[in-house]
Every structure is written in structure tokens, then in C-alpha cells.
Amino acid sequence: MGHRIQEIIQVLEQWAPPAYQESYDNATLICGDRNAKVTGVISTLDCTEKVVDEAIELGANLIIAHHPIVFKGLKSLTGKNYVERTILKAIKNDVSIYAIHTNLDHVATGVNKRICDQLGLLNTRILQPKRQALSKLVFFVPPSHKDQVLQAVFEAGAGQIGEYKDCSFQVEGSGTFTPSDRANPHLGTRGVPHVESEIRIEVILPHYLQGKVLSAMRSSHPYEEVAYYLQPLENENQEVGAGMIAELPTPLSENDFLDALKEKMNLSVIKHTAFINKPIQRVAVCGGAGIFLLSEAKRAKADIFITADVKYHEFFDAEDQLVLCDIGHYESEIFTKDLIAEFLSIKFPNIALYLSKVVTNPTSYR
């Protein structure tokens, strides 16, 4: 039995949860049948008509693209532009298109980590960690069922703090309750006040897993009515956020670093601010349009910030505090297709997996 498209999507969304995408984004299954069996997968930065043609030729019925071919929705499908033509061709040929975009930008093993790896950088960490992405769940359970309920919420995704899993805080106490005449109490008697030894348990969980964790807690808990509460946290989630900051093993001169940058990222040209005559060691990166992180890069004491889509006047904002580089949107993210393919090859070693050979860069240099 082969894998179905939904299985591929499920694994991708465990890696880069859709809840981490920006509000404007459309990281999802753009078109296709989730229940179709996978005949082959193509990884690409962009999905265009030529990429769909490539999929058809290879017999692959799933395209995984970083950039969504549909951003703002479609009101008609008449083939009047490249977006509609691409979707029509995919649908007619039973090719599914899935986009994994800013959610992959925002995870610690995603787009920006791949850029850092490409450049040989060490000590990688999120440049702008995401706030309000975590909640604290507090619940109460009798000692006899503590391990059972804890195991259930851990398996549902709670209790992960950085490199540590199964994290919780526990304290013993007493719970009081009086079951109503309609209750079906696990402990105590209807209409009779009851005191029960209980353990208060606190765990951290991502917002997007609240439903799953609560369901696991309820289904494993012995009580008919579980006493619990959820509290949103202001804590930064160090594993989720925008951009990345890292260090070179040894400092390089500005010229030497840019030469290495061109070689390792396969660049023909780099647009950058003036040198500030300072060795380069701490490097900030953001694949795609990342100028919104310039202040964060300065705060992190980066010597250089590598991104794309920088406007003319935005270069002035570097203010000689770092070297600001625009290496091109396509160029900054082209290795994302390798990242996706490598991830899937580990998870699904028996699936036919292809790197798109189509150059989708809409710009050229002379």
C-alpha cells in the first residue's frame, strides 16, 4: 500500500505547523485530493506551469512549493493569468499543490537554519522569537491517575521546553466538591460534600495544540468533570519566530565574507551598504523579505544582515551599525527546495522524490 497525500501533509505540518504562518499567508493544500495515493513528489521554490509540466512528465502527483501559487484567493478560473493557468493545469492532470511558506520560515529547523548551514554558521538561534505562542495548562488529578493523564498530555504535545520534553510542575493538595443528583462521580457520593487528595499539575503547550491536549486530558482523566484552566503566556517561544542569528567559526574580513557568501549561495551579485571596516563574525539572516528585522539584527549586535527585497531608502537605516545585504528573494530561498526534499526523504524513504529543475526566478541580471 502506498502513502496518501494526507500522510505527507500531516508530517509536513508536524514540522512546520500552519498556525505559525503569517495572517496574510496561504500555507495549505492549494488544490488536489488529500486522499489520493502519492505517485511522486516534486519539491520546488515556486509552482509555475512549467513545474506542473515537469510533474506530469515525471509521473508525480504532488508538488510541494515554498511559495503559495494562490495568495489572495480566486474569484474565477478562466486561465487569464499564470496563477489560473497553473491551477487549471494541475487540476486537469490530477496534480496536487501544497504550500509550506511562512510557517517553514518560522521554525528553528526551517528556511533560515538552512541558510545558516549553507554558510557554515554555528550557534544558531531565532532572531525574533514569537510571543504569545504558548499557554500554561493547570489541572487537578487524583494520585492514582496522575501518570496516566500526564502521559496522555505529553503525547499530545504538552511539556516541551526547548530541548527538554515531559516537563511539568506538580504539588499535592486537597480538592473539594459536592456531586449533584444528576452527577455520576468517580469518587464521592451524590449530594454529599467530599474531600479528595489531588495533585495540581502545570504544563506548557503551544497555542495551536490546545484542542488536542485538552482532548487527551479529558479522555484519560477519571473525573466526569475535570477541573482545569488555561492561561496565555507572554513568554517568547525560542523555537519559533522570524530570522536567525549565528556566528562564523572564525571572523572574516568584509571582503572575504562577501566572497564566501557569493560562492556558497551561488550568487552573481550582492547589493549591500558600505563596509564599516569591522571583521564579520555575528551574522543575521532572513530568507525572503526581511527588512522588518533590521532593528532586531542591530540589537543582536550582528556584524552583517543578509536578506532580500530591500528598498532604496531602507538601506540608509543600516546607519553604519552593520553591513546590510540584499542577495535577492529567489537566491535567498532557493535551497528551501533541498531542505524540503531532504526532510521528506528521511520520513518517506520509499517515495519517488524529485527536486524541480525548473528555474522559477522571474528576474535576471546582466
From TrEMBL:
InterPro entries membership: DUF34/NIF3, DUF34/NIF3_bac, DUF34/NIF3_sf, N-reg_PII/ATP_PRibTrfase_C
The keyword Metal-binding is assigned to this record: yes
Keyword annotations of the record: Metal-binding
Positions bound to a divalent metal cation: 66-67, 105, 329, 333
Signal peptide: none
Sample GO molecular function, one term: metal ion binding
SUPFAM superfamilies: NIF3 (NGG1p interacting factor 3)-like (SSF102705)
Recorded GO CC terms: cytoplasm
Subunit structure: Homohexamer.
Family indicated by similarity: Belongs to the GTP cyclohydrolase I type 2/NIF3 family.
NCBIfam families per UniProt: YbgI_SA1388
Protein name, per record: GTP cyclohydrolase 1 type 2 homolog
Organism: Algoriphagus sanaruensis
